Amino acid sequence: MMSSRLSGAQREGCLSADILIVCLRSEGDASTVCETPLFPKHQLVSKVETVPVEPTQTNSQTQGSTMDLVLNVADHYVLTPYVYPASWPEDGALRQIVSLLVLTNLGAAVLYLGLGAISYFFIFDHTLMKHPQFLQNQVRREIKYAMTSLPVISLPTVALFFAEVRGFSKLYDNVDESPLGWTGLFLSMISFLLFTDGCIYWIHRFLHHKLIYKLFHKPHHIWKIPSPFASHAFHPVDGFMQGLPYHIYPFFFPLHKVLYLALYVFVNIWTISIHDGDYRVPGALTEVINGSAHHTDHHLFFDYNYGQYFTLWDRLGGSYRHPSALMGKGPHDLIRKLQAEGKLGGDRVKVNGHNPRGVPLKEE
Q1: Do the record's keywords include Secreted (predicted)?
Q2: Cβ neighbours, 10 Å, residue 15
Q3: Residues 131-150: tens digit of each pLDDT
Q4: pTM for the full predicted model
């Protein structure tokens, strides 16, 4: 046989018009040498069985993101039947980008206004509005600032969501896809919190650098005594930078899609909670959890308590401050003192017969 004389030859099945012959193609050589016919084609055809081939899925279909769960629901119930023409396929890039822009802005507004309203009416202590550093029309101003910033923040955020939808992240659908199963699911939740807490600490601290602060972060510090609606009242660059760790995590570490969605909602709840004026923290967790009392001191004293969930990085970075509200020196204590001195009338503070709300605060 010729095949024994060809070094590194590859056998290829070649169908001629009437017979199946075996050809030898030498590696690195364009020439082909054919062997003696093995058997007629009609004998081969009678032995061939049809093997069903399942359609392959694209990378974006097999991996995708949390947002493809939202997109699927929106497409099925609203966008496909009522919004987009049939010529726009659901997996088309342009359609996905437009849909993500709409859904991201709608979701951000619902979470911010909905959760903020619940916190404002049921948790926030309205007595804090009597504090001399609570601004005139502050709640309205916080909402206006946030609602003008969120659409701008959504632009780079949607770029990251689109990359997730197209399958570039490590998000997965089923628990059995996790290397460690349910244990891996639990560990990914813990690592998400630790990763984002550490990243936000350093981003937040960077935003307080004297060359950066006035450009991007100072608008958030206008709210010395924040309400829940101050939670998202950021400059767009500030808001995107502090939200970035949540979005890049699944590009580095495996994470279940549904857990990612749950953590995203949790992050919004937590962000509102540390601005809600409810300073209560379980005694055993005071030194560990960065609650509203800790974060209010950050707004008041500027250089302390940069952390998001935990006090760990503030302790390591030398920026931890025990909450003044837990030492009898917080905003409520000042209000009670002013009331006792007769300087608090109605919803305004009177010092020497004047309203100090219009007095400029110390420049930071």
Answers
A1: no
A2: 11
A3: 999 999 999 999 999 999 99
A4: 0.77
